[in-house]
Specification:
Elements: H1 7-15, H2 20-29, H3 37-50, E1 71-72, H4 82-91, E2 97-99, E3 115-122, H5 125-135, E4 139-145, H6 155-164, E5 173-178, H7 184-194, E6 202-207, H8 212-224, E7 229-233, H9 242-251, E8 257-260, H10 263-269, E9 280-285, H11 288-298, E10 306-311, H12 321-326, E11 335-339, H13 345-352, E12 360-364, H14 369-379, E13 388-392, H15 398-408, E14 416-418, H16 426-430, E15 441-443, H17 451-458, E16 469-471, H18 479-488, E17 498-503, H19 505-518, E18 525-529
Length: 531
């Protein structure tokens, strides 16, 4: 049957595949005659990746190399073999963008359609302008932090940025943080400039500068540009402009994703029903009454797919039952994140009724305990869509961890588990080790895991090369166990992600030196100090 496929049809099939491992497996087993030139080149890259020939390009802790579906190369200049450069040249037509952090040109010719994404935050003006000079006509994503501290930005640099930003023709997404400085006038100039951009459709903004003039330009931008995502981070600096800003946001008919971290903005926004076109909503609220207002605003929303509600720690605990009872009315809800909202028994019962339709559930400081976890695990066998479960700071002990581990077998779609900030000890952690081949992400940060569990983990680490994240940091697992884990990774030439561990400050330097001498790619183990 495979002989009936044409290379063009195979390439079309691959373009609809979302998992990197699946694409690699397919390309490595198909006959060469069935592969188009770009796919044959991609197969060459996968072979080089698995043989450890791309190690130099992965040397960054916060950015993982990926060949599919996005092309992510933290440091492309490290790729210098002609056969790999030719392969990247041939495979480039498969990608819409290249994600990197490098300030150097790549060694191959990029096709005209390919854009450059720089998601790592640039905090120094010289780094910002060097990358803009290199990629000005290709930049589609940029992350900038403006600060006068340490002399990273001068007034002239901020003024220059205001002139440069509107000239980037393909800049689609910008993360801009410009809080905590004295360049008020210059920052206002930057904000007005970026709100004149016709290509910018996704903005994450943190600022302590605002004015009526800026608000007017902001409103025009939301009206005349098809903005799809807006995140206003941190406190909003001008309370008298809250309602004007909310009015401008509501007037934007293309907005699909909205995050408001200022409580006054959030209260004003949920004072009326949510716009029908909104698909994702992230709110930080500071009083119980806003939970009720959010419930009324969101109920029966036809398109809401993701909801995140964070309650201020200083607020009195609200009655969350109305909010949870309204969730079944959100027919398209797939991702739910509740923080600092206590879930009593009746509220939990209502929440579990919507769990089978979710793809992601994140609960933080909800006081679930082991009893609440037992209720979740009873529902997990019916959760065919759920692929991410995060239960953070819930007071979960070994008992709850064992229950979750047992239930993972009955919920094969669940590949991302986050149990950060709990009370899980070695027995609970060890229960997850046989399941690691089926997990992509496991976070056990800040628990009570000891040396026994870490030693047992070192025996199965060779089965975890596919994992994007295995986080054991801020657990006192001991120097011998960490050395055993590093030694177990010695033979592995490729890892999809990072193993995170922590050691005491007195052992830190020695262990970093040991990893540097032992591992071909020492950045695949992220060692931090334990305090």
């Amino acid at each position: 049957m495979a002989a009936d496929l044409s290379p063009d049809l195979v390439q079309l099939i691959v373009m609809y595949m979302a998992d990197e491992a699946d694409v690699a497996s397919l390309l490595l087993v198909l006959p060469p005659a069935l592969l188009s030139a770009p796919l044959a080149a991609l197969r060459t890259l996968f072979r080089a990746l698995f043989d450890g020939e791309l190690v130099g390009a992965t040397r960054h802790r916060s950015m993982h190399l990926s060949l599919w579906p996005p092309l992510v190369l933290p440091y492309p200049p490290a790729i210098n073999k002609p056969i790999l450069i030719d392969a990247l040249q041939a495979a480039s037509s498969l990608y819409a963008s290249l994600t990197t952090r490098s300030s150097s040109r790549v060694r191959w010719d990029l096709p005209p359609h390919l854009t450059i994404e720089l998601p790592c935050r640039l905090a120094q003006a010289r780094h910002v302008f060097s990358r803009i000079a290199l990629w000005d006509t290709r930049l589609s994503l940029l992350s900038i932090q403006i600060s006068a501290l340490r002399g990273d930005w001068a007034r002239s640099d901020v003024e220059k940025l205001a002139l440069v930003l509107p000239t980037l023709p393909r800049l689609r997404s910008l993360h801009l943080c410009c809080a905590g400085h004295n360049y008020t006038f210059e920052i206002g100039f930057v904000l007005k400039a970026l709100f004149t951009s016709r290509s910018l459709t996704q903005l994450s903004l943190t600022t302590n500068v605002w004015s009526e003039d800026i608000g007017c330009v902001f409103a025009k931008w939301l009206t005349h540009v098809p903005v799809s995502s807006l995140k206003l981070r941190g406190p909003f600096p001008m309370k008298s402009q809250v309602h004007a800003v909310v009015h401008a946001i509501r007037a934007c008919r293309t907005l699909q994703s909205l995050a408001l971290e200022d409580a006054a903005l959030a209260r004003a926004f949920v004072a009326a029903p949510l716009p029908a076109h909104l698909c994702e909503l992230d709110l930080r609220i500071d009083r119980p009454t806003t939970v009720d207002e959010t419930t009324r605003a969101a109920a029966y929303h036809p398109h809401l797919e993701a909801l995140r509600v964070r309650l201020s720690r200083a607020s009195l605990p609200p009655d969350n039952l109305p909010l949870v009872l309204s969730l079944p009315t959100l027919r398209r809800l797939r991702r739910l994140d509740l923080i600092h909202l206590e879930l009593v028994t009746m509220t939990r019962d209502a929440l579990w009724t919507v769990l089978p339709r979710l793809t992601e559930l994140r609960l933080e400081k909800s006081h679930l305990g082991d009893s609440g976890v037992a209720e979740i695990t009873a529902v997990l066998p019916t959760c065919y869509r759920l692929h991410r479960l995060a239960l953070v700071d819930q007071g979960i002990s070994d008992t709850g961890a064992l229950a979750i581990a047992r239930s993972l077998v009955l919920c094969p779609s669940l590949t991302d588990v986050d149990l950060t900030d709990n009370a899980i000890a070695s027995d609970g952690a060890i229960a997850f080790w046989p399941l690691l081949p089926n997990l992509i992400v496991l976070r056990l940060r800040r628990n009570r895991i000891g040396e026994d569990a870490a030693m047992a983990l070192s025996d199965v680490l060779r089965l975890t090369a596919h994992m994007r994240c295995l986080d054991m940091s801020d657990n006192n697992i001991g120097l011998p166990a960490v050395r055993a884990m590093i030694t177990a990774l010695h033979d592995g030439s490729y890892r999809a992600g990072v193993v995170n561990v922590s050691v005491t400050p007195s052992d830190y330097e020695a262990l970093c030196s040991f990893a540097l001498g032992c591992l071909r790619d020492p950045h695949r183990v992220d060692i931090t100090r334990l305090y």
